[in-house]
Amino acid sequence: MSKFSPFATTLWYATAAPAPQTTRLEGRVSADVCVVGAGFTGLTTALELARQGVKVVLLEAEEAGFGGSGRNAGHCTPTFSYYSLPSLRKILGEPWAERLIHRQTRANDRVGAMIRDYQIDCEWRQNGYVMGALRPGAVELLKGKVEQYNDVGARTRLLGRDEVETLTGSPRFYGGWLHEEAGHMNPLGYARGLARAVMQEGGTLYTASPAEDVEPEGLRWKVRTPQGEVVADKVIFATGAYTVKAWPKLDRSFKILRVFVCATQPLDPDVRRSVLPQDTTMHDGRGDIYVYKYNAEGRIVASMFPMGARGSDIPYTHQVMADRLKWLHPQIRQPIRWEYFWYGELDMQVRTVPRLYGLAPGVVALTGLSGRGVPTGSMLGGILSEWAMGVPEKDLSLRVEPLKAAPFYMDYAPKLRLRYFRYADTRAARREGAELPPHA
Question: Where would I find the FAD dependent oxidoreductase domain in this sequence (predicted)?
Fold first, then answer.
């Protein structure tokens, strides 16, 4: 890991179970499949392959979970982040849409099974996710989510005003949407547990071994690192937002959107009994999101996107985050101290759905998770491992596409969209006579 890495400032780095012992790659090794990037996607791909007896080598530039997998907020909600399910069916077409919807909405089955089977120490709590409605009109929008997700087998339901207050401890919501299968975790602990599982199943993980170049060698591929090389039949890039230039133009296939996460001091026991008393994950329901939950120590871990001074002016950002939390939960009387603050990066696509690129015969890359890292990365390993095992492309759950650059407007479109959501929510709340949160 880099000496002054921002990764080391995260709450997860301070509290996760230790990383497994690994070494850097030195010399030449051979494999059936070389996976580049030990985040959730690369780890679960390598794990699936190793379990099936495939000789797999996993290369990581830093350590397992160093990128978005170890820097996210730890939510594990098996949904899609922007599009409704009917919209996804129109965008992706069949059979791709139904296959991907099934994998994503059942992703927590996979997460829970891996945590159980490999005894991963990661603070896993599967107590549900609540999206609140901060104005009356938002309740109607949540009814559509109940219908769409329940139709594909998810366990979700609409909450009335009293029920959402009992579940969350907040008096601010007119109703809410409960996804009973959602959970939260220490994501770095999960990544490290997956790394151990890969090694337990016979896979090889090399850390501090960045892929610098990939070139053909006969009918195989050679992946070069600073001190060594892997010669493999197939290569999978699973580096997401932390993609480097080992393959030409791959790092242009997405645009970066930053998110910040912060964690309070451990809250007093009486506060914890009334704020998120059932240890759920909470989304306040505004398009300019504020999402929060507890870690095992009783700290509130909350995240938002930078906007204006929010995210860059740290004292101001701390105030914004504390004011929102105390507005949602007026029973919090103690001062809020944000003892951890860190950034992560999202690899954004126009349609916020991962893209599977065919780079060359025997080489693919997957980018564009767009902010649904834990469940999405965990289920993508199944798709990539199927590709590596020779499943025909027509039978995969993602269409294999030619590599293409993200359009130029993605440099600013996600940020403008967030500003629009903020404006639209504020305008609708005023029209409906609902109280606005501070700094809205």
Answer: 32-387
User: The domain 6-73+188-254+350-406: what is its CATH number?
Assistant: 3.50.50.60
Beta partners for residue 346, in sequence order: 257
Strand partners, 355: 367
Model confidence band, residue 349 (pLDDT cutoffs 50, 70, 90) = confident
Phi/psi at 356 (nearest 5 deg)?
Answer: -110, 115
Name the nearest CA neighbour of 375 among 192, 176, 115.
115
pLDDT at 235 over 70: yes
* Level-2 CATH architecture, domain 129-180+266-336+413-432: 2-Layer Sandwich (3.30)
In terms of Cα–Cα distance, which of 189, 190, 193, 209 is closest to 201?
Answer: 193
How far apart, in Å, are the Cα atoms of 417 and each of 73, 220, 261, 370, 420? 21, 44, 20, 14, 5
Model pLDDT for residues 294-340, shown as the tens digit of each residue: 999 999 999 999 999 999 999 999 999 999 999 999 999 999 999 99
Whether the pTM exceeds 0.85: the reply is yes
Helix (H, G, I), strand (E, B) or coil at 357: strand
Sequence-separated (6 or more) residues with CB below 8 Å from residue 222: 214, 215, 216, 229, 230, 231
Token pair 């992560």 is at which residue? 344
Domain boundaries, the chain: 6-73+188-254+350-406, 129-180+266-336+413-432
